[in-house]
Specification:
By secondary structure, the chain is α+β, with helices and mostly antiparallel strands. It has two domains: 170 residues, Immunoglobulins (Immunoglobulin-like, Sandwich); 77 residues, no CATH class. 30% of the residues lie in helices and 28% in strands. The strands form two sheets. Strands 1, 2, 5, 8, 10, 11 and 12 form a seven-stranded mixed β-sheet that branches. Strands 3, 4, 6, 7 and 9 form a five-stranded antiparallel β-sheet that branches. Helix 1 packs antiparallel against helix 2 and helix 5 crosses helix 6. It is elongated. About 18% of the residues have low confidence.
Amino acid sequence: MRGRAQVSALLAIFGLVAAVVYGCGGSSSSSTGPSSFGASGSAGNSGAVVQGQLLRGSGSAQGESVIFVVMRSALGIGIAEAAPTTPLADATVTLSGPGGSFATQTDASGKFSFTGLTPGTYTFSVCVGTTPCVPQTVVNGSQITVGPADLGTINGTVLNDTVLASVDVVAESVTAQGILQNDAQLCIASRIAQASNVPLGTIITMRQQHMGWGKIALQQNVPASVIGGGNSCDASELNSIRAANGQGNGHGNGNANGKGKGKV
């Protein structure tokens, strides 16, 4: 059994190495420089939030190639085990997605945040230095899918020109009443339920377990695109859903489209 596990681990490592070798030239994992805010409108209280922190690796791991970084990650050897880290200040972090491209800089603690993001999938990129900054290759965690009332977290460590990132998304609003009374959340919950042919209550229960909309869609084998724009529900549909769930025709002030803002 142990031998089979070792073979599986080696195959997984070779697969990851191949993905890095043949994928490093892609535009989805790096940025050519900072972007400006490009969205319009207001997200109200339904916009997604993405925050995180960047650290600079030092010591022996600083000289590692991207292939060794991926292999170490596959073997479960974390950044903290490989080398000490320090906060990376003044790095340009960009999220590019359905609401446009939004850029901000990390603060003295290496932290950053984006608020009021339009629901959908965003590509995460990092550029270090100034005039011009140097794009970094993001290994793992180059994309994040967030929906209304989601809190996304991206943490990364920069080693040479590589960012080893981890992504997590949790629900900020988890009450059934809150979901049913918020237009954007109710619409997404209904779309996922319809696409996966399960009761709306099942999706709401998953949400109450603090699952992000992207994770719920993934578990129900529903494309993440259902979370973004283009799937808005009209008032009559929302009222029908609420009536079927004993909520009458009241609704919240949720709006699935919004303006992204970066801040430190």
